[in-house]
């Protein structure tokens, strides 16, 4: 299914941003928030994994229902997972487009990668876990 993805900050992300190595930060930034009706159409339940694919990359995220979202849209908190699927173009502003990225979402049994594995996929050097 096709969706429009927006990204931004969440309260839980802000509470754990001081420790980006924490499970809480990884869980929050590795979550795709979606309207329950869309989840029903996809055949996924809360805390299951979905593959989110954009023209710029793909990641596996945990899906969580959010009744405040409009059907057809998703929300992904800022962080390494969102950065993996947004356009790096900044239009000379120094800030990439974090809003309104078209994505395709499908259920998957694949496990969500760790932040370390995501960075390695981009050619980054692994650092101490």
UniProtKB/TrEMBL annotation:
GO terms for molecular function: molybdopterin cofactor binding; oxidoreductase activity. SUPFAM superfamilies: ADC-like (SSF50692). Residues 3-101 form the Molybdopterin dinucleotide-binding domain. InterPro entries: Asp_de-COase-like_dom_sf, Formylmethanofuran_DH_dsu, MoPterin_dinucl-bd_dom. It comes from the Archaea. This is Molybdopterin dinucleotide-binding protein. It comes from Methanoculleus taiwanensis.
